[in-house]
Every structure is written in structure tokens, then in C-alpha cells.
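Page 42, continued from yesterday. The earlier attempt failed because a stray header line got pasted into the input along with the sequence. Redoing it now with the clean sequence only.
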Amino acid sequence: MNIIRPTWVFGYGSLIWKQEFPFLESRSCRIADWSRRFWQGSHDHRGMAQNPGRVVTLVAAPGEHCSGRAFLVEPDVFEHLDHREKNGYQRVAVDIQFKSETVSGVTYRAPEGNVAFLGPASSKEMAQQINRCVGPSGSNRDYVLELARNLREMGVSDPHVFEVESWVLQATDTTSPICS
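This time it went through. C-alpha cells are written below.
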């Protein structure tokens, strides 16, 4: 996908709170027929190769929507974003819905079957894994808590994220990291 003009990028995970790239504009938004899930492994940011952390990806969810933040970026920013989202993520076209309009844009999605895909598990199992993992970008636990905090600040309700967050906060065994 060759980008030749400023383009909207939909962020639904760490892009919501961690922008280490220049952007022209940022707006709250959503995309239709997708849901955010902690089904993607993180070997390069929130875990290690032998023991990945869990980060969010998008899964098809007809009739639902995923809320997040869109960033209007210049074409040269995609070199950085493509590197940042390299661990199984692919850049895909999406329709981004703002309050007053819908625009074409892109997002990064880690599809089922990619090298780092972990798939579903119970929220309790995911939280146990998350609480043990640390990678070059920090603890997996912090990733979950920061995502949940930012979604609340945006007024977004995401039952999956909040349920995993609840289990992460309940877990007591955070003293023996297996992913660092």
C-alpha cells in the first residue's frame, strides 16, 4: 500500500497514548465491524521471543465498533509506523468514522495465523500471562492499565479491555517475571 499524501491512521492500542511520531491532527473516532482483543503476542515490545506478552489486535465483529484515536500523518511517517508495528501486524485500509464524517484511512491489524498470534484465552489466563511479561517497551501490565485508563478518559466502554484489566489488578503473582 503506497501512501502518497497525508493519511489518517486509526490507533486502538498503544498508539492512543504513545505517539513518538509527528502528526498533523488527532481526533477521537471509531471503525465499524471490528473489536479490540488481547490476542496478539508481543515478542518485541511487551514480552520476549520465548515468552511473549499480550497486546491488542482487531478481530472481525459484525455489528460492533472499535473506538480509538486517528492521527493524520505525512507519508514519510509510515516508515516509522511500519517498523513499530512489525511483529505480525499488517497495514490495512479502513473507513474511519468521526462524529460528522467518515474518511478513508489505514490501521495496523495482526491477523489470525501471523507468527505472533496467540488467539483467545480466558481473561484470567491472559491476565496471568500479562502480569509476568516485560519487554523492551516496559511491562505488559502497564500496557493494559494505560490502555484502560486512556479509554476511560476518552469516554469509551470496552468490556474486553476492562475485564482483562480487572483480572490484571486482582492477580497477586507479579514477582516472578517469565518474559524478561
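Notes: The chain has one domain: 7-170.
Reminder to self: strip header lines before submitting.
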